[in-house]
Structure to design on (392 residues):
């Protein structure tokens, strides 16, 4: 999606060269638009010293700019990890970072955060890129070790520390895993300090990324930062078929987008009568079939009949009130919604050149004319020479 290194040594982004206020929307994963970058601070207020730093995929952390370095969004910096050092990309700073701290870690104390060492040098960046290149082979071998030990776990991703002294393995598992022998084997084989970190299915999908059924990138890997619980009641309120193959995302859980329009459906359902119960008529009892919330149409049908009758919520409430008073209407068709007849505008070939075979007739006529043309006899040469043509 973006450049391997989005910043040069001087703090100016290479790609869009927009000085941190990137508006293309495709430079980094989980990119941040600094909408407070061009607003000056009030007099006497110091710049917020915590900086949000982005690492591989969606992992972010806050670091303290103790040396007051001149940083911009997109700068590649070296941070303290104790032990060792790591490299990340500045994703938010200043007042925007202050807002992020209040949102994600309200109890975070500035002095407890580790500090930023300096802007990364070219040697450090080369070492960091080298570690990224080793991660795929490291992931393959670690999966082989876990399979040989018959551990019921899935290692989905690995992240090398920039100084190549530590490797963090992210895995998913249903229960508790005893991976002490696995750590010993990987530490002897890879010669690095190994850390195992368990994540959920949604976090795994966010780290790996992908394309959803809507044709766009996964929300969790681009802009969604908090994972809210999604229940099947959200699908019931929206009258979706409870098909696990359609409702489940790449993480195997219910799609997060089921919650996006749920509030609108809940507000619209409040003004609709309850669908439970039957409508009693002289013709028989009508059963509720389906409801179109936004068109405000409710369909009922009689037992043994294929057709359905469309009613408005007001009509349904009226019939229920009659049934409550002991009155049965003759037929639901008397209360059916009258649809306005819309004149259908048919397609007309005004130009007359839309047919795919419009040239075949002319081509065939030309070929037939050539076949019908008789063979001409060669003209005899004129011994007297060519005659003078008359002027027009």
């Amino acid at each position: 999606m973006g450049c391997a290194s989005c910043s040069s040594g001087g703090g100016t982004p290479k790609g869009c060269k927009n000085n941190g206020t990137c508006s293309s929307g495709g430079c980094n994963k989980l990119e941040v638009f600094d909408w407070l970058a061009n607003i000056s601070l009030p007099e006497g207020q110091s710049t917020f010293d915590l900086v949000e730093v982005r690492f591989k995929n969606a992992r972010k952390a806050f670091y303290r700019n103790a040396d007051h370095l001149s940083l911009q969004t997109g700068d590649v910096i070296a941070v303290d990890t104790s032990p060792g050092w790591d490299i990340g990309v500045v994703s938010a700073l200043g007042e925007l970072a202050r807002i992020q701290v209040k949102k994600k870690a309200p109890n975070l104390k500035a002095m407890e955060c580790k500090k930023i060492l300096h802007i990364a040098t070219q040697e450090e960046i080369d070492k960091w890129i080298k570690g990224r290149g080793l991660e795929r082979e490291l992931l393959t071998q670690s999966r082989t070790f876990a399979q040989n030990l018959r551990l019921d776990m899935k290692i989905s991703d690995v992240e090398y520390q920039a100084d190549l002294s530590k490797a963090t393995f992210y895995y998913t598992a249903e229960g508790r895993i005893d991976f002490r022998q696995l750590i010993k084997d990987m530490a002897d084989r890879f010669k690095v300090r190994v850390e195992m970190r368990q994540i959920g299915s949604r976090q795994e999908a966010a780290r790996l990324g992908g394309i959803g059924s809507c044709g766009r990138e996964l929300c969790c890997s681009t802009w969604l930062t908090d994972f809210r619980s999604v229940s099947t009641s959200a699908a019931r309120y929206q009258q979706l078929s409870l098909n696990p193959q359609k409702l489940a995302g790449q993480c195997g859980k219910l799609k997060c987008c089921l919650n996006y329009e749920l509030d609108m459906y809940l507000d619209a359902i409040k003004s609709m009568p309850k669908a439970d119960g039957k409508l009693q008529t002289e013709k028989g009892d009508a059963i509720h079939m389906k409801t179109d919330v936004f068109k405000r149409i409710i369909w009922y049908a009689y037992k043994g009949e294929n057709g359905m009758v469309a009613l408005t919520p007001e009509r349904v409430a009226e019939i229920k009130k009659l049934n409550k008073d002991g009155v049965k209407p003759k037929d639901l068709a008397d209360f059916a919604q009258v649809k306005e007849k819309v004149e259908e505008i048919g397609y007309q070939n005004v130009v007359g050149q839309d047919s795919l075979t419009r040239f075949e007739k002319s081509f065939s006529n030309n070929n037939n004319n050539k076949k019908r043309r008789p063979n001409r006899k060669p003209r005899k040469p004129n011994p007297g020479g060519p005659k003078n043509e008359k002027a027009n």
Summary: The two ends are 73 Å apart (CA to CA). The chain has a mean pLDDT of 80.
